[in-house]
Amino acid sequence: MANLKKFEQNPQRQLLEEIKGSRCVMLGSPEHDQHMQPMAPQVDEEAGIIYFYSDNTSELGQTVLKSPGIVHMCHIDSDYQACVRGELLPHHDKATIEKFWGPMVDAWYPGGMEDPKLMMLKFVPHDAALWASDKSALGVFFEVAKANIKDEQPDLGKSKHVQL
Length: 164
Hints:
alpha+beta
């Protein structure tokens, strides 16, 4: 269940924490007719930036190298959802590549941090639409039943739009 107090007091920080705890998010492309794809986020909470390891020969990698731009990133969990809009661009800083490197990343790049296909993408969030719920499965059932009886909308959580 999402922490609605944190949702109200510091939604920007909660967003980064939620994404950091996620195995993957769906990341869009600056070329908007391309489909979103699952990517593993590397979150720098202090800077408010999200990085992704990518492949410079992939469709997304080639697109970002050719024309970086505004994309959407979606995070979906059972009690917290976010659609984040921001700028996606190539990032060539070796220190950033090293900072987030680990066995899971290493498995994708046989040449290690010097693999010729390795590239890092930098996602700079601008704004986000957020939804959060603190209801358990039983709580959701209760709210839906109550709404049906009273002919009203169920209270399943909160939503907001934030600048990042």
